[in-house]
Amino acid sequence: MSARLSVDTVLAGLDGIRSDLEAFYRDLHAHPELGHQETRTAARAAERLRAYGYDVSDRIGGTGVVGVLSNGDGPCVLFRADMDALPIEERTGLPYASTAVDGDGRPVMHACGHDVHVTALLGAARLMAQARAAWKGTHIALFQPAEESGEGARAMIADGLADRIPKPDVCLAQHVLPYPAGQVLTRPGPALSATDNYRITVHGRSAHGSSPDRGVDPVVMASMLVVRLQTVVSREVSPLTPVVLTVGSIHSGANPNNIPETAEIQLNVRTYQEEVRQRVKDAIVRIAHAECAASGAPQPPDIDHFGTLPPTINDEETTRRVATSFSAFFGERARELGIQTASEDFSEIPKALGVPFTYWGFGGTDPALYARAAAKGTIATDVPTNHNAAFAPVVQPTLDTGVQAAVVSALAYLGNGAR
Amino acid sequence: MSARLSVDTVLAGLDGIRSDLEAFYRDLHAHPELGHQETRTAARAAERLRAYGYDVSDRIGGTGVVGVLSNGDGPCVLFRADMDALPIEERTGLPYASTAVDGDGRPVMHACGHDVHVTALLGAARLMAQARAAWKGTHIALFQPAEESGEGARAMIADGLADRIPKPDVCLAQHVLPYPAGQVLTRPGPALSATDNYRITVHGRSAHGSSPDRGVDPVVMASMLVVRLQTVVSREVSPLTPVVLTVGSIHSGANPNNIPETAEIQLNVRTYQEEVRQRVKDAIVRIAHAECAASGAPQPPDIDHFGTLPPTINDEETTRRVATSFSAFFGERARELGIQTASEDFSEIPKALGVPFTYWGFGGTDPALYARAAAKGTIATDVPTNHNAAFAPVVQPTLDTGVQAAVVSALAYLGNGAR
Amino acid sequence: MSARLSVDTVLAGLDGIRSDLEAFYRDLHAHPELGHQETRTAARAAERLRAYGYDVSDRIGGTGVVGVLSNGDGPCVLFRADMDALPIEERTGLPYASTAVDGDGRPVMHACGHDVHVTALLGAARLMAQARAAWKGTHIALFQPAEESGEGARAMIADGLADRIPKPDVCLAQHVLPYPAGQVLTRPGPALSATDNYRITVHGRSAHGSSPDRGVDPVVMASMLVVRLQTVVSREVSPLTPVVLTVGSIHSGANPNNIPETAEIQLNVRTYQEEVRQRVKDAIVRIAHAECAASGAPQPPDIDHFGTLPPTINDEETTRRVATSFSAFFGERARELGIQTASEDFSEIPKALGVPFTYWGFGGTDPALYARAAAKGTIATDVPTNHNAAFAPVVQPTLDTGVQAAVVSALAYLGNGAR
Amino acid sequence: MSARLSVDTVLAGLDGIRSDLEAFYRDLHAHPELGHQETRTAARAAERLRAYGYDVSDRIGGTGVVGVLSNGDGPCVLFRADMDALPIEERTGLPYASTAVDGDGRPVMHACGHDVHVTALLGAARLMAQARAAWKGTHIALFQPAEESGEGARAMIADGLADRIPKPDVCLAQHVLPYPAGQVLTRPGPALSATDNYRITVHGRSAHGSSPDRGVDPVVMASMLVVRLQTVVSREVSPLTPVVLTVGSIHSGANPNNIPETAEIQLNVRTYQEEVRQRVKDAIVRIAHAECAASGAPQPPDIDHFGTLPPTINDEETTRRVATSFSAFFGERARELGIQTASEDFSEIPKALGVPFTYWGFGGTDPALYARAAAKGTIATDVPTNHNAAFAPVVQPTLDTGVQAAVVSALAYLGNGAR
């Protein structure tokens, strides 16, 4: 059986499960759960996987769930969906909008579309299970907690993920994005940025504001540091290398008339290559120390490096294989994805397992709305993006596309050797 | 009667009131009251003034008290003492240390020595009243609220002070300082700085940290502003003109990864001449607007000018007259005061009344402690200064000196024409 | 006749002209001429074109030469080569190295490879003329002066180029680059940067160094301007958009002790999109004015915008057509070109004529040398790049490749309709 | 004989020598000589001193001259006058204006009034010699070369000055200034600033302007250094301590498009206390190193410290003694001198000899012109100051006052013990 025939056979079941999937999605959207608290979501995913015949392990890295469907000799494909929602108050006006709150009473919302990811992967799993004759190998459906905080993937790995599943040959993941629903968008090589956060505390010496010579002014020191850090992007990295360095906060002092003891800045760095990431880190450390030295600071700065996420650098060969399958199936709806300034922890899983991976986007925006905004040049303002309180993927063709992409990509590996 | 004989005659009564004054002082120190809340202090001052024969008006500008003792034709001298304490928890270890709290339960302490000022002025008033034959003219004892916030003097003026007292020929005031007890220190011309506080809010445009081109970064804007403001002192005022410009606080943003909407800095400026004060203000306003323009800010900065105090520029002739009297009485203990970077609102009173004034310091530190610290070069660290929780003037000779200075200075005007 | 057959037919003549071309190239390399002085080069090009049967116009925009070969109905392709050399003293050690000097005795060298471009285009013209039966349409060979100064293309246009030639359907150009000889490298869309130079003079007010308050310090003003300009790249353009802003010079003052009257900086900007180019220009102007305002400058800055070159943004469709032909002919040797930070004036010609264009690179480095350097990671230091005194393309397969690329690309348009 | 009688006796001779002195002065003004070239001036001074009976040594430190008049037991007073002129083209319009040029044909002018100093000291020497009975002790008249370059005093010391003269008890010097002629102005303590010049070369790494990541940008480094140096004055010295730090020049690069290899700044610092001078020097060195470290410079900065002059800190006791004599003789014309931002090398001599000193100013401006300018508030623009091409002291009462001040100050030491 050819890969194409395989795809057609598996996806033939989509019509039969569509209304169930849509209902499942609406329910999930109405019941979002924050990272590490995805108990209801995880339970539903595990329950369904078991019903489909997957061999399920749960409570991996907290609320993580993995289902394995062994279907004879052949490649092993791992597909990952993330489950967590965000502490945002939903303003979509949807009939199934979330009114959920967390333990502290804060509103919670699926503003990043992870509910779409979960639904699409469950749909694909069901179809794969229904049509075992159409493919050969092993399909792993992985439901990850806490992507937003960047901890979930590492938590599952630390909890022994590698020992609980067969070693995959490839890992796949997808994300709904503010592109027209129906499109799938792939990108070989650097696709998502690495994120590094730094908290730098500079130490001065407090004094009355009228006696600057008796103190060391941390307000001036931190300000010079902010100014100097601009040169990392403007002078220290190649103009052809995308890098962002944003100082998102600066805090020092309480009143106009006292020189404070310390100042703190927090900054976020986004890069796309490990060597650039390291070069920027080195520059930040070097500059922070030098600015404190320039001020005659009584001690060097404290530099706290936190909230790191790796760059998502899609394997070229894997991406080409998936993209070729997408072009064959989706035709013109298969596009190239531009490089993204967002970050993801998905790649932690394949890197821990030592296997290649690719990660792609698929559209969730009403195509008509998108086309109108594009015509007016107002996409940035008219199309709600992820993390926005109005982010509301249209149910269809978003869900269908997500299921199809999950099936087509898996069968790019599992479909060829089928009976 | 010569001025000198007059001084000797009035001060002859000091031995008889010393122990009463010391007890009064210790009680006052143990019962500090914050600005505009000096009801107990004001009541005691008014009660005593009335007992001495002064014609008393109270509740001027809130808790202000004025006593007038008319004693025949002659000059009229107004002497001012300030009454308020500070929200500081006392750590002097004195037997009469304050345990008082304000209405919100915050500790209160006479950490600036206003209790010494009140006691010394009441002592002088009692001596002046006891020895009316030794001088001629009018003595006004004024007890002012809320010096620390810079509002008290203006409050008394706004409440009609000028209409409630005879117009003085001169206004006098003194402040206990961390010099050896027993010393009095005068300074003609600029003596205390003007203070101006500014709160500057710069307006950016928030954006995700990964999209700086979609925002206007207020962290960079405020940092550049802090850096640029350094040039006011380094380039825009004469090197021979003392100016301090301290940015005491800077605040913007909450996390590393978002470009905030605004940033706020607070700064304090100290100057000694009105034209310099204005030039610095103009420079601050000019630079703040220009830095916002350089960043392409969506709106100009908000600049809030608050907490102003005028420079205290002692009248040359008045200061010379008082200083000459001090030299005659105190001998070597009469010194020259260096220019001070602190500020005061006393001068608002004589300026409102249109009369000359002088303001001097007198020591409150144990001379032996001071000498040891001076020998070691550790005055800055070993001698507690005003506003420090350990500020504890030695009772004597501090009180005696304060009373003597108040009498000697008044008699520099009132003593010559006496019978 | 198919395009492929057409290519084979035309290029069949290459073996017969190779040794002549190589001799021509070595002679040209030994006789470089600076921009606008390419009289010998232009004369030889014109002479050869005429011999091949082209209809030649010369002295266009100074030394420019155009040859037109009309060969029946069909598309019209213009191919441009640049002729000028650089004021660099050759250090290649080649037997045919230049010892030429210009009128002022300065050494001159073909350090940018324009001698390769001229030779390759003449070779292609000869082959096209020899095999007219293999293609149909019009072939224009254009030899442009003064590319290095960015003036030559505009000079030819200003001199009526459009009226002297048939309107082409497409314009093509190629450049030898430090890639392995034998490779051709194309890039759709932005390929070369725009260049803009700015000279900014800020006006202060001179004063004795001891009286900064009497002056306005242009050294501080220019320094703040340099610092502020860093934020254009770090904050005002998208991290995904390559932009370079280099302040290459700063000059003010003559001795340590006088505040000068003015300061001057010169800066170079490289961008790849017109809107980014304009945004950066706006930012520079805005910041320069604001920094002068911040300093209280007596007058706004003088901003001289000079030395501009447009971005080279290859037409997507044209590039794809040429790239497809290259892949068919060169196979693996047809590559994708990375975006270049260099600039070119070629695109002025097709823009003036209103036609699409593409511009590609081809290798000139000894493949063995390149491979060794690549293996050691020392390409940057071991492979001499354009404008380096040691830049020495290997004669073959560089010339063959240049001729082949010029023929193949032209026949992508002219070959299909042939008899 | 009292000091006062002594003064009257010595100065009784002034009427008799006035016209000769005025002629000498006009001749000297018309024949200015640059530093180390004062051969004519020195010869005339030596000739006159010998004629008055002084024991003369010449060619000390080049053109320096010293005359010693021993007149019995008593104190020894050294009085110094500087002889050199400036490379300025005179524009006074005076009948005796200089038309002199130096060896290179550059115009030379006595624009700093050293001709007045020489004349006044010779006049005083003549009077002292004529009236030996009126004083007792030793009078030393010293004529110093090369004050303007700050080298002359050190040159005389290095040439063995201390061994050629009796050790003085005190050293005195005076300078004509743009105050009303007839006034003498003294200042105890800090009077003239120290000067320190620094040349700082920062080392970057050159690169093409389009590849900042391959270089280290010295333009940015030097600009940040200029900006950072502003904080020395604004934050590191007491607001009550006058300090000037002016970066008078900055130079780097030649064209907009190359990152240069180095940048150089020159700066001038003026201070009034040795400890402040050292603190500022330490701060400059610290900041320069730190800014280079912040940029990742390949090597630390080169810091050349040159052109230093010490602060002139007048001995308190000496100044009081001289000022008291001036008050007695000049009455209201004896004033207090404000602190000056100029520098002098006179103090090198008494410091080398280990003796106290004082230095004062005396007026040279037409009193009527000065009064008009003062009334209009235009002194800064209407009264030509030293080093201005229009600086033209009125001959009288300038010369008389200079002679009188030189005699009165010397007799403050030598007059009391007279017969």
Automatic annotation (TrEMBL), chains A, B, C, D:
Top-rank lineage group of the source organism: Bacteria
Swiss-Prot/TrEMBL keywords: Hydrolase, Manganese, Metal-binding
A molecular-function term among this protein's GO annotations: N-acetyldiaminopimelate deacetylase activity
One GO term of the biological process aspect: diaminopimelate biosynthetic process
Cofactor(s) demanded: Mn(2+)
Textual note on the cofactor: The Mn(2+) ion enhances activity.
Keyword Transmembrane helix: no
Entry annotated with the keyword Hydrolase: yes
Name by which UniProt lists this protein: Hippurate hydrolase
InterPro entries the UniProt entry points to: Amidohydrolase (IPR017439), Bact_exopeptidase_dim_dom (IPR036264), Peptidase_M20 (IPR002933), Peptidase_M20_dimer (IPR011650)
Domain Peptidase M20 dimerisation, residue spans: 197-292
Positions that bind Mn(2+): 112, 114, 148, 175
